[in-house]
Specification:
The complex is a heterodimer of chains A (113) and B (112).
Chain A: E1 4-7, E2 10-13, E3 19-25, E4 31-37, E5 44-51, E6 54-57, E7 64-66, E8 76-78, E9 87-94, E10 103-104, E11 108-112
Parallel strand pairs in A: 2-11
Antiparallel strand pairs in A: 1-3, 3-8, 4-5, 4-9, 5-6, 7-8, 9-10, 9-11
Chain B: E1 4-5, E2 10-14, E3 19-25, E4 32-38, E5 44-51, E6 56-59, E7 62-67, E8 72-77, E9 86-93, E10 100-102, E11 106-111
Parallel strand pairs in B: 2-11
Antiparallel strand pairs in B: 1-3, 3-8, 4-5, 4-9, 6-7, 7-8, 9-10, 9-11
Classes of the chains: A mainly beta (113), B mainly beta (112).
Chain lengths: 113, 112
């Protein structure tokens, strides 16, 4: 039971570089989410998707982009990395029943120097 | 602004003690309240989800309650064990795919 898989687990970037954080789920969930978690702060929603081809901004979308070409995959792209984007990034998925829990990946720890 | 607050931020208890973790929220228009566990370097694992029509949910040694009128939820852990050491987060869904607000968590340490 893989659930939600995120790659890579760790990454160090230089300011101005770009990268894509990968997320895939095998539960056939329509809803997928990207969060960031900063020390001492709650998780903040970056982007979410309600199905293939449909994405929308969350609370903190600036500096990020997403796409959803398949049900399984929901990559998050950082175009011009900035130190403020140093964080732990979590991908999550859920079914259409909001009284079912969200399932989370193990996270990607990203440092931008 | 809709907020979710968890106090205390950290808690240390001896093994075997019963304990209560608190979660308070400012918006009573709640759809459900979820408790998660987060181990170091790991993602969030769902423990219990309480729907707005429910007062409590139980799973093993865990019991979560919800009081919408006072804007509070509690997670009760009975007979704590060292393996319960983790950070516990609550999250309130107020409707809509994106409207899940997370608390900052309580870091629990159970001392053998």
């Amino acid at each position: 039971n893989a659930g939600v898989t995120q790659t890579p687990k760790f990454r160090i970037l230089k300011i101005g570089q770009s990268m894509t954080l990968q997320c895939t789920q095998d539960m056939n969930h329509n809803y997928m989410y990207w969060y960031r978690q900063d020390p001492g702060m709650g998780l903040k929603l970056i982007y979410y998707s309600v199905g293939a081809g449909i994405t929308d901004k969350g609370e903190v979308p600036n500096g990020y982009n997403v796409s959803r070409s398949t049900t399984e995959d929901f990559p998050l792209r950082l175009e011009l990395a900035a130190p403020s984007q140093t964080s732990v990034y979590f991908c999550a998925s859920s079914s259409g029943d909001f009284n079912q829990p969200q399932h989370f990946g193990d996270g990607t720890r990203l440092s931008i120097l | 602004k809709q907020e979710v607050t968890q106090i205390p931020a950290a808690l240390s208890v001896p093994e075997g003690e019963n304990l209560v973790l608190n979660c308070s929220f400012t918006d009573s228009a709640i759809y459900n309240l979820q408790w998660f566990r987060q181990d170091p370097g790991k993602g969030l694992t769902s423990l219990l989800l309480i729907q707005s029509s429910q007062r409590e949910q139980t799973s093993g040694r865990l019991n979560a309650s919800l009081d919408k009128s006072s804007g509070r939820s509690t997670l009760y852990i009975a007979a704590s064990q060292p393996g319960d050491s983790a950070t516990y987060l609550c999250a309130r869904r107020s409707g809509g795919y994106q409207k899940v607000t997370f608390g900052t968590g309580t870091k629990l340490q159970v001392i053998p």
